[in-house]
Amino acid sequence: MPETAHSQEHSHDTNDHGHGNGGQLWGLALGSVGVVYGDIGTSPLYAFREALMAASGMHGAHGVPAAIERATVLGVLSLIVWSLLLVVTAKYVLILLRADNHGEGGTLSLMALCQRAIGKNLNSLFFLGVIGAAMFYGDSIITPAISVLSAVEGLKLVTPAFTPYVIPITLAILIALFAVQSHGTAAVARFFGPIMAFWFCMLAAGGLLHVSDDWGVLASLNPYYGLKFLLTHKIIGLVTLGAVFLAVTGGEALYADLGHFGRKPIQFAWFCLVLPALVINYFGQGALVLADPSAIQNPFYNLYPDWALIPMVALATCATVIASQAVITGAFSLTRQAVQLGLLPRLEIRFTSETHSGQIYLPRINSLLLVGVIILVLLFRNSSALASAYGIAVTTTMVVDASLAFIVIWRYWGWRPSLAAALVIPFLLIDTTFFLSNLLKLFEGAWVPLAFGFFLIGIMWTWRRGSRILAEKTRRSEVPLDMLVNNLEKKPPHFVQGTAVFLTSDPNYAPTALLHNLKHNKILHEKNVILTVTTATTPRVPEKDRIQIDNVSEHFSRVTMKFGFMETPNVPKGLAIARKSGWNFDIMSTSFFVSRRSIKPAARSGMPLWQDKLFIGLARNANDATDFFQIPTGRVVEVGTQVTV
Questions:
Q1: How far, in Å, CA of 339 to CA of 463, rounded?
Q2: Is the pLDDT of residue 437 over 80?
Q3: Rounded CA gap, 627 and 512, in Å?
Q4: Is 297:12 a contact under the CB 8 Å cutoff?
Q5: Could you read off the pLDDT of 177-196 as tens digits, one per residue?
Q6: pLDDT of 337-346, one tens digit each?
Q7: 3-state class of 641 per DSSP?
Q8: Domain 26-59+68-445 has CATH 1.10.3470
Q9: Domain edges within the chain
């Protein structure tokens, strides 16, 4: 494993809300509809059905009920509408979208913002960030499975003959979706916005067709009906809340995708199109079920006339593929952030666009997500069963976001603790209630994302802990750079022409590759650069702040190269910037020295044996430092060392 040139760096930033001015607002808002709202936009396919069946005690029951209590329908609708208003609109759209980290959002961005506000790295903040990130991966395998499966299940309404083919068709669509990831989403993305905008228009149209079946559903705008249902049904009410939460899954994507579109376009799309379409559709489903209880089997597709079923299934499939695409690319972006922040080993990152650095493809993550999605579809086999597993991952992420938001509002925005608590605690209570309601489904499927999340938490914690132990052990055998330079000035070795760049994580100590070069080759280049690549707690670093040069002696200089956690390090380009500071850099006369470590388990380690073996396995599968830092392979000299951990 190459010696990593990687550490964390704090820097200050100001709130920057990005894009969305003038004529760009409409275009960015349309784009946000295609990317940001894909997940929450497909919730009407299953959310109302699952919530109403839970409220009526019909989970797992067969047959059609003769009637459904009016109070139950109004209670479920009220809970869905007010969940959309409180959890998504108030918490995410109006509050958290303002908590941006140089225009970027998401749990790891929020964690970095908290660290900067407090001024130090706290294990509690790190642990919260890791939990939120791990649960997002759980969401990333469940969303494609439940979304595509629920869309394809509409074929059973066209004719029961399609029933045996639902699973194969679903798997074929999912395999095709993951297969095209390597080609990038730039070409397809242009169509995402218009398709999803049309989808939301059809949601509203389906709802409008049936609201007149029972205008009384509009009374559910009164929160009294939702509260009354919860108070009178107790345990069933809590179980129902777990299903109601399906209506707001995808709300966290608003914040995670902030950097792609900016605050104003996302807010504009939500208030002008997405929220009205969702509410109208849910009202239509409620009115339809009150007029015809048999429609509860699939109230979404029953909103539309028979001739529109096949077109709506096709449109729903497109919408669910788009929703899945957004979550998959979100997982890619999150992985890049995690690697940059030192939570995961280096992974191969491929860029799929010459103009958009955010469009990336990670082969290993793509393969792991595909395997996870296929296992889920084959394990649960229908969207109702998958719904039990869905909410727990998202509710956990939302609880983490609310907890971190308190710190940002208090320490970063400068609010008094009492005011910050008064704002955040109501949302935290709502999120916690949703979390507990989903926890009731632990043995029905909620264990799947929890197990997956704990597995990823274990990997991140092991990598961070092992890296720290390895760095401490390596440092014991290292020589302070200043001491080495003084000794070399007294007894200079033989000098050769050119520049040698030694990558290291600690610029105060002589890199292992430098010591081995002196020991075995007994030579030194005319110019020697001790290079450290650091990761800032901001998403991107301005070019003027990229390079910092400190001349140690005539032959030695320390160079610190800083990248944001949303950027991919490019060492040659970074060194080229140093020319503006008067440093003469020529790639053809420069050699890059990296240490390749062979890690063995130590007799006495700071970790259990299983964690030692896991860390060594992760290190062996890490991407090569040469590729990760984009160094030309023909200019690299690798020096092998063996260390124990």
A1: 10
A2: yes
A3: 20
A4: no
A5: 898 888 765 555 566 788 99
A6: 888 888 899 8
A7: strand
A8: no
A9: 26-59+68-445, 473-644
